[in-house]
Amino acid sequence: MVLQQLKTILKKAFSQAGFNQIEPKMIVSNRPDLCDYQSDSCFMLAKQLHQNPWDIAQKVLLELQKDKGNETIFAKIDIVRPGFLNFTLADQFLTNCVERMLTQPKFGLEVPNKQETYVLDYGGPNVAKPLHVGHLRSAIVGESVKRIIEWYGHKVISDVHLGDYGLQIGQVIYGAILDHKQPKDLTLQYLDTIYPKMSALSKTDEVVKEKCAQITKELQEGNAEYKEYWKAIVSISKADIARIYDYLDVHFDYWLGESDSYQDIPALEKYLNDRSLLYTSQGARVMDIAEDTDKKEMPPLLFQKSNGAYLYATTDFATIWQRIRDWDPDHILYFTDIRQAQHFESVFRACKKAGLIQNGRPQLEFCGFGTVNGVDGKPFKTRAGDSPKLDSLFRQVKEVFMGIKESNKQASQEDLDKIVNAIIKFADLQNAKERDYIFDIQKFSNIVGKTGPYILYTYLRVKNILMSNTIDNHNQSGIIYNEIDRKLRLELLKYFTIMPVAMETKSPSVICDYVYNLCTVTNSFYESNRISTLENLQQKQDWCVLLACVEKVMHQLFHIIGMEAPSVM
Known about the structure:
- By secondary structure, the protein is an alpha/beta fold.
- 52% of the residues lie in helices and 9% in strands.
- Among the domains are: 2-89, Arginyl tRNA synthetase N-terminal domain (Gyrase A, domain 2, 2-Layer Sandwich), CATH 3.30.1360; 167-247, no CATH class.
- The strands form four sheets. The protein has a four-stranded antiparallel beta sheet.
- Strand 5 (117-121), helix 5 and strand 6 (155-159) form a beta-alpha-beta unit.
- It is globular.
C-alpha cells in the first residue's frame, strides 16, 4: 500500500522530468535521522545518460514540488549530495496509513491479480523410525512458507511425501521375520528398537545387508507377504508422525509417499523410451542430463539399477510427472536438507530434458536448509550420540522453560505447549534457512533477547493494554506526539517492504526479523509512554489505535510463522 503509493509518486515525477528510461526505486531510509524513505535512482540514471546525478535529482525534485497533492503526503522532500532523494512523511499521512492498515484486507498489502498454484513438498520423513531433530526444519520451514504463499492469495497443495519404500522397510521386515513376528504383532515400540538394530547389523553383516536389499526390491515388485508387513509399518508410523506434526501445527493436503509414485513409473519409463532418452550402461538404465555450459561433470541420472530396483531419483521423477498431470501447478517447491541439492538438480534437469516443463511451467525450486547444531557447533545429538527424538526435544524445552523461574511452572499445559512451539519455531525460523544454526535451549527459552518468549510477552503486554482501554477507530487526531510514537508507526509500515521479500525469497527469517524489531520498538514505546495514566483522552485514543494495529499485525505474522500466543506468561 504505502511503498507502492510512494513509488507511483516518484515514477510520475521522473516521467514529468523527462526520465522514462528506468523504473525508479524507493526504499526505507537507512538513515532514519535524515528521512523516512530514500531513492538512489538518480545514480543509475546518471550512469546510463552520462549526466550528473545531482542535476537529475534537482529536476525530479522540482516536479515533486510542483505537485500540490504531495504536500499532504510529505513533510519534507530534499536532495543530498551526490544525488539522493530524501522523503519525510507528513504526520497526518503517517497516522492515516496506520489507521487504514486496521481496516483493509491483509492490511493493504498489494497482492497479485492472478492466482497461481504451488505444490509444496515438505516433511518427507521415512516411516519405520521416529521423527528426530533432523526432521524439524523441513516441517516448520515448509509450513511457514506455505502460509506466506497463501497470504498472497495463491493456491497451495502440500504433500508430506513419506519415505515409505526405501531400504529401511526391508530392514524392519527382515528383523520382524527373524523375531518371528507377524504384521499384527508390530507396535511403535517395536519399530523404535528393531530399526536401529537392523540398520547397525546391515553395516557389519554383508549377508544381512543383501537380504534387506532383496526384501526391499521384492516389496517394490509386489510380494504379497512383504506387502502386509509394509502396510502395518506404514499405518503405525503414519499415526505417530501425524501426532508429532499436529503438535507442531504442521498440516498436509496429501499424505502420499514413494510407494504412490511406483504406479506412475511404467508410464514415465515408456515416455522416456519413446523419446530415446534412456539407455543401458553396465546393465543399468540411465539418462544423460549434462549441459554444454557445465563447468563440472554432471553424471547421468540413474533411472533403474542393474538388478531392476528403482531409486529416489526415479520416484522423485515420477512424482513430478504425477503432480504435473493431476494438479497442473505453476511451481513445485522442495524443502529438504541442503545436502540433497545435487540430487534435485539431477531430477530437475531430467524433467526439463524430458519436456515435462512447458513454457516455463512448472518452475521447479529446491529450498534447501542447513542443519540444527548443538552448542558445540556440531549436529544436535543426545549423549548417546544419536539425533534426539522430537518428543524428547519437546520435553527438554518444556523442562528448561519451567526451570527458568518459579512462575513458569504455574502455566497450564495448553499454554506450555504454545510456548514450547514458539521457542522451537522462532529459534529455527529466525535463521536464514540455508544456514546451519546452533539450538541453545537455555538461550532460546529466555524472555530476554531474540527469542519466542520475548515475542510472546510483548504481544501479551499489548493485548493487556488494549483490554484495559476503550478504542474508537473513527476518532483520530492525526497528531504524532513524540519520536518513539513516530518510530513505531514507521516500523509498522515496513510490513509492506518485508512481505514481498519473504514471498520472493521464500524466507520466514525475514518475517521473524521484522517481528522482533517491531516488538523491540513496541516495548520502547510502552516504556516511554504510560498509556493507562494519560489524562489526555484523545492522546490515549490515538495510541490505543496504534497499538491495536501492532496487535493485529503481530497476530497475523504469528500465524504465518506458526506461533500462537498463550493466555498468560
